[in-house]
Design a protein that fits this description.
- This is Glucokinase.
- By secondary structure, the chain is α/β, with parallel strands linked by helices.
- It folds into two domains: 119 residues, Nucleotidyltransferase, domain 5 (2-Layer Sandwich), CATH 3.30.420; 172 residues, ATPase, nucleotide binding domain (Nucleotidyltransferase, domain 5, 2-Layer Sandwich).
- 39% of the residues lie in helices and 19% in strands.
- It is built from eleven helices and twelve strands.
- The chain has a five-stranded mixed sheet with strand order 3-2-1-4-7, sandwiched between helices. A five-stranded mixed sheet has the order 10-9-8-11-12, with helices on both faces.
- α5 packs across α7 and α8 crosses α9.
- It is globular.
- The C terminus is likely disordered.
């Protein structure tokens, strides 16, 4: 039987597990609502239970290891989940050590957005590219960068927290405490908040009718915009401008071969894309304006597939080599690579 990886995508709302083949195919999949408020032991118990379900249903599976992705901040080299705001009671949890002791298999840990970036780069919208920036726009905004075939981690694996770029000096305060974060003005949550403020319960607007009179979500805005609602279309235009400003910053910072947009709001990519591209055309320097901005292809499988590839493609382009190597050795190799690249 083909070699497989157990993969887990731990989110604040849902925990997903899968058996994934080297070619990126998902052979089996399970999920459960995350017990996000119950602490790390309860959630790790869920991971173990889902793994048991997958292995029991596929007893002949040849599992090479476990690839795990979770919300940051986390340290992929040390295998520690530092303290994600969406998971209560997670403080410096040594997740790799815990799962390694439980299963006796190699375990790799990665930030969820980085794993999704890796999945899209290897098997999705970024196939064949040398580098990409993946942006997930949903409840918040996250990101991952694949540069020259490898995840860009930065210090302690904390790079590419793009949702917390400051792109304005005003607006609602971000959950991180700052004002003007990309996430605070351009996430799906921010779009829903603007739509809710623009309308009122019982005002007869399409947005409020779609929301059943309650708070309006980004999904309602996209649905109303597709129906031609003028207010919704104006909200989409404003959202596209904020995304375009953020994407322009990413182009200037990373100069990728392409930007891939995922997350829940990517369901409205066709509505947002013209405004995004207009803003990039107005704000980016000429050399950056022709970089493609495309929707993600893998949907909610991206994190699982990317996490699995940490095991199945270890030591090959796309795998963060420093996780499996002594840090000094990794630093030496990176320095040598830089020297070689400069001739």
């Amino acid at each position: 039987m083909t070699k497989l990886a157990l993969a887990f995508d731990l989110g604040g709302t849902e925990l997903r597990g899968a058996l994934v083949e080297r070619g990126g195919a998902v052979a089996a999949r399970v999920s459960a609502p995350t017990m996000a408020g119950a602490g790390s032991e309860a959630v790790i118990g869920q991971i173990i239970a889902l793994a048991g379900t997958l292995l029991a249903e596929h007893p002949q599976a040849k599992v090479a290891g476990i690839g795990m992705c979770a919300p940051g901040p986390l340290d992929p080299k040390a295998g520690i989940v530092i303290g994600p705001p969406t998971l209560a009671g997670w403080h410096d949890v040594p997740l790799i050590d815990i799962l390694n002791r439980q299963f006796g298999l190699p375990v790799r840990l990665e930030n969820d957005a980085n794993a999704a970036a890796l999945g899209e780069w290897r098997f999705g919208a970024g196939r064949g590219s040398g580098s990409l920036v993946f942006v997930t726009v949903s409840t918040g905004i996250g990101g991952g960068v694949v540069a020259d075939g490898h995840i860009y981690h930065g210090r302690r694996g904390l790079a590419a927290e793009i949702g917390h770029m400051t792109i304005t000096g005003e607006g609602d305060r971000c959950f991180c405490g700052a004002v003007g974060c990309f996430e605070a003005v351009a996430s799906g949550t921010a779009l829903g908040r603007r739509a809710t403020r623009l309308t009122a319960p019982g005002d007869g607007s399409l947005l409020r009718r779609l929301s059943g009179g309650g708070d309006v979500s980004a999904r309602h805005v996209v649905e109303a915009a597709r129906a031609g609602d003028v207010s919704a279309l104006e909200l989409v235009d404003a959202e596209a401008k904020w995304l375009g400003i953020g994407f322009t910053n990413l182009l200037h910072l990373y100069s990728p071969d392409l930007i891939v947009m995922g997350g829940g709001l990517a369901n409205g990519f066709d509505l947002l894309a013209p405004g995004i591209r207009t803003t990039v055309g107005q704000r980016a320097m000429p050399a950056y304006r022709d970089v493609p901005i495309v929707p993600a292809e893998l949907g909610d499988r991206a994190g699982l597939i990317g996490a699995a590839s940490l095991i199945l493609w270890e030591g090959e382009p796309g795998a963060p080599l420093a996780i499996a190597q002594d840090e000094d050795n990794g630093a030496s190799k990176r320095a040598a690579a830089r020297e070689a690249s400069h001739g």
